[in-house]
Write a structure and sequence with these properties.
alpha+beta; 2 domains; six-stranded antiparallel beta sheet; 8 strands; globular
């Protein structure tokens, strides 16, 4: 008799534990389901202010716990009208002409070197006197008012090249050289024509170079020294002012 009561008591206790475990499993399922739901739907933060709207007047919302590291942003200097000149690697250490070449070999060496810089065929550049003069100055650093291989400015470089190669006498400044030339159109440009720029604003001609070929011109650049540049570069497009031609005897 006592044994039967004990047996029934154990049965009821086991049944109660079973019901309790089922309830716990159900709660566990609900908790897991809720957690998965939170993971699949990122929580959104509150709107920051009345200014955080898109152009379509839609509110901007941000995900919580999300950070972004911005990279470099390049801004055009449109407010100034003129950007910045590119910096080139004008390492001329490996571009020095060997001293043991014959005159023909020197000419061939110069043609090869500058055909690469101007992106043209070797046969298309034949003015060896011009190449020699350019090579004499190439890589010389810029120095305002300079007139030596220690430093030269754009107008003296132009003056020296035009005198040595074309026997044309120029005045000292870019603005004065501009006044010595006859205006020409872009499509009429040829070797030896002068290119004028307004790099310091719209009020005066402040830079000059010598046109070569294939949109390339040689000049004493403020940032790169004596170098060959391309007229299609954005900086030169922005500050290009005029093209001019000199007549022998000026």
């Amino acid at each position: 008799m006592i044994f039967n009561y004990l047996h029934k008591g154990i049965y009821f206790v086991a049944f109660a534990l079973f019901l309790s475990s089922c309830s716990s499993i159900q709660n566990l399922k609900q908790t897991a389901s809720k957690s998965l739901s939170n993971l699949s739907t990122p929580k959104k933060s509150k709107q920051l202010s009345s200014n955080n709207y898109t152009s379509d007047n839609e509110p901007i919302e941000f995900l919580d716990n999300l950070s972004v590291t911005p990279g470099k942003v390049f801004v055009k200097k449109s407010s100034l009208g003129i950007g910045e000149e590119l910096i080139r690697n004008n390492n001329t250490a490996n571009e020095v002409m060997p001293s043991n070449l014959s005159e023909v070999e020197k000419a061939n060496w110069l043609q090869l070197k500058y055909s690469i810089k101007m992106d043209v065929t070797v046969e298309s550049i034949s003015n060896i006197s011009l190449l020699k003069k350019i090579d004499e100055w190439y890589g010389t650093p810029y120095n305002y008012g300079g007139a030596s291989k220690f430093g030269v400015d754009c107008s003296f470089f132009t003056l020296d090249v035009m005198q040595g190669v074309y026997n044309i006498n120029l005045k000292r400044t870019a603005a004065e050289q501009y006044e010595q030339t006859t205006r020409i159109n872009w499509e009429d440009l040829k070797e030896g024509d002068l290119i004028f720029f307004k790099t310091e604003g719209p009020n005066k001609v402040s830079h000059v170079g010598i046109y070569l070929t294939n949109n390339k011109f040689v000049h004493a650049s403020v940032r790169n020294g004596v170098t060959i540049s391309d007229l299609s570069e954005p900086y030169y497009q922005k500050c290009l002012f005029s093209m001019g031609r000199l007549n022998i005897g000026n």
